[in-house]
Write a structure and sequence with these properties.
Length: 279
Amino acid sequence: MEFLSELTGCFSTPAAGNPTVAMVEAAYRHHGLKYRYINCEVAQGALADAVLGARAMGWRGFNLSIPHKIAVIDHLDGLGASAEIIGAVNCVWRNRDRLIGENTDGKGFVDALNGVAAIAGVRAVVLGAGGAARAIAVEMALAGASEVTIVNRTAGKGEELAALLTARTPARGAFQPWQEPLRVPDGTDIVINATSIGLYSDGGVPALDFNSVDPVTLVADVIVNPRDTPFLSRARARGCKTINGHGMLVNQAIAGVAFWTGVTVDGAVMRAKLAEIFG
C-alpha cells in the first residue's frame, strides 16, 4: 500500500473563502487520482518562501490568486505563451525540475462567455488592471473583441495594459481613468468587473454610474464568493443580463488540473460541488 499523494494547491491572501479546493478535490476523487489540493494563506512577503517550499516538497503545481499573479513570475523558471503575453500567472506546473507559469484565467472567462454572448466585434470595458484583468483583456482581444477599454485607478498600470493590447493583439486597447462615478462609454457591449471589490461578501460595489449602462449590455463579475455580488444585483436591476465568476473558475481549473495530472476532468463534477456550496 502507498500513502503518498501528489500535492497541488493555491497560494493567496485572503485564502479562507476560496472554494477552488472543494471543487478540485471533488474532481480528484471522482477520477480516482492520488492528488491533494491544499488552500494556503501566503502573505505578500512570503511568496518566495512558498514557492521554494513547493519545489522542496515536489508539488506538481499550484494556483496563484490575489495578490500573487504578477509577483510570482520572478520565482519561476519559464512562462507559457499566454502568460508571457499577459504578464500574469494563475497556474504553475512542474516540468521535471522546472516550474512553468501558465495563465488559464482569460481562456476560462472566454469559454464561460461562449454560448452566452458573441465575442467577435464587441466593445468591452474591463474594470481593473491586475492579474485577472490582464488575462481577460488579452484573451477577449485574441478571441475577436474589436476594442477593450481598461479602467483603473492607477493610470500607469492601465495605460500599460491598453498599450499591450494594441501592440500584441488584433484589438484596439484604450485607457479610461477611474473617475467616480464611472460612466460607461456609449456603445459598450460588455462590462467586466475584474477587481476584488465585492470579494467574500464585503458589500462593496465598483463605483459605477449604472444609469450609464445600456440595459442591453452584458455585465460580468469574476468574483466567485459570493456567487451573486452586489455589482451583479445592481446590473440586473438596470435590466442587464449578467454572468458570475463560477464558469470562469471551473474552466480555468479544468485546464490547470490537466497541466498537473494529464487528465481532463469532468467539469460537471466541479460545477455540482459549487452548487452544493453556494446553492
